[in-house]
Structure formats: structure tokens, C-alpha cells
Write a structure and sequence with these properties.
The protein has 2 domains: 108 residues, Muramoyl-pentapeptide Carboxypeptidase, domain 2; 43 residues, no CATH class. 32% of the residues lie in helices and 12% in strands. It is built from 6 helices and 5 strands; from the N terminus they run αβαααβαβββα. Strands 1-2-4-3-5 form a 5-stranded mixed sheet, covered by helices on one side.
Length: 192
């Protein structure tokens, strides 16, 4: 296993963490990225249980198919000829065939050109902070509070994962199923 840094023993370039773009294997490893991954390690240490990075860097082509099934994603990416298909045309094609809800945002912070370190993560429920049988959408909120306290100003809480980035302005989105939303997430994670 190749650790990202000695200060981040639970995250690695290879293994279960999806840091590089799945299509190009590219990363943008600059000081901001290393500071963000160390902050993510601090959140993991505070959480006291596993945190897996499920998405970090993407190119525009992969971002357009990010939420397709694995079979459809592989099929579409195999058809792609990036030398003749601009990203905008690729997004139009994917949108017409599958709808807009399968695509990452056109200006996603995950894009390789973005200067904002960005992670989608899944936290283990085996933390001392989680009551027995607590549903993931509930404890994702607690992990989001830890992330915000560690300097991640962009927080999106979903039923199955959390989006965290280090943008300049505070952005908080509660995208969990309605039964898990209680009141203003911004207030509950300390972002107000």
C-alpha cells in the first residue's frame, strides 16, 4: 500500500480509496490536496472508524457518466473517442440517452481543473459515536459536522455518502431522503 503521506495512514493511492480519476488515472497532487487529505485523516481519527474515499478526481467525460450503472458506464466510455468528441457534446449525448440525473454537475468540484480538493466518502457505522442500528443518513450528519469543523466548507449529505470540499464559501446541501431531514442542516453541523 502506498500511503498518500506519513500523516495519512488510513488513505492510500492504491487500494480501496478512489482518489485518481477512474478513466484517466490522473490526480492533481498539490499542497491544497495534501492539506485536505490530512484534514480528512483528522476527521477519520475523530470518528474512530473507517472512512473510504469513493470519488475524488474526475475528468469531464467520466463526470458525465458518474452515476450510470457500472455496465452502462463501461459501455459508454468504451464508445468514447475524446479526440473527436468535446466534453459538451458528450454531456449532451449522455443527457439525451439517460437523462440529466446520471451526470455529475457540469461545474463539479471533482473536475481535475478545479482548484478545490473534493471527496465523496462513506463512513463506517462502527464508530463509538453511532448508536446500535442507527441508520447511515443519521450518522452521516455527525460526520458532516466533523468535516465542517475540519475546514471543509462544501458539505453535501446524502443517504449513502457525504460530499466534502474545501471551497471558499460555505455550501451545505441536505440531499437525504425526506424522512431523515429534521431541520436546517446548516445549523445542526455548525455552519451558521
Amino acid at each position: 500500500m502506498h500511503l498518500i503521506t506519513p500523516a495519512t495512514p488510513n488513505f492510500a493511492w492504491d487500494g480501496s480509496d478512489a482518489i485518481a480519476c477512474p478513466r484517466t488515472a490522473m490526480v492533481r497532487a498539490d499542497i491544497e490536496f495534501f492539506e485536505a487529505i490530512e484534514a480528512l485523516q483528522a476527521v477519520r481519527d475523530r470518528w474512530g472508524a473507517g472512512i473510504t474515499i469513493t470519488s475524488c478526481f474526475r475528468d469531464g467525460y467520466y463526470n458525465a457518466v458518474v452515476d450510470l450503472s457500472d455496465d452502462d458506464k463501461l459501455s459508454e466510455l468504451a464508445r468514447l473517442d475524446e479526440n473527436v468528441t468535446p466534453v459538451r457534446a458528450w454531456r449532451s449525448y449522455i443527457s439525451a440517452k439517460y437523462g440529466d440525473d446520471v451526470m455529475g454537475a457540469a461545474k463539479s468540484k471533482h473536475l481535475l481543473g478545479s482548484m478545490v480538493p473534493t471527496f465523496d466518502i462513506v463512513a463506517s457505522g462502527r464508530s463509538k459515536h453511532v448508536a446500535p442500528r442507527m441508520p447511515r443518513p443519521h450518522y452521516n450528519e455527525l460526520v458532516a459536522a466533523f468535516l465542517f469543523a475540519a475546514g471543509f466548507n462544501g458539505i453535501g449529505v446524502y443517504d449513502e455518502h457525504i460530499h466534502a470540499d474545501r471551497r471558499d464559501k460555505v455550501w451545505v446541501a441536505d440531499s437525504r431522503s425526506p424522512e431523515y431531514r429534521k431541520s436546517d442542516l446548516r445549523m445542526r453541523i455548525g455552519a451558521m
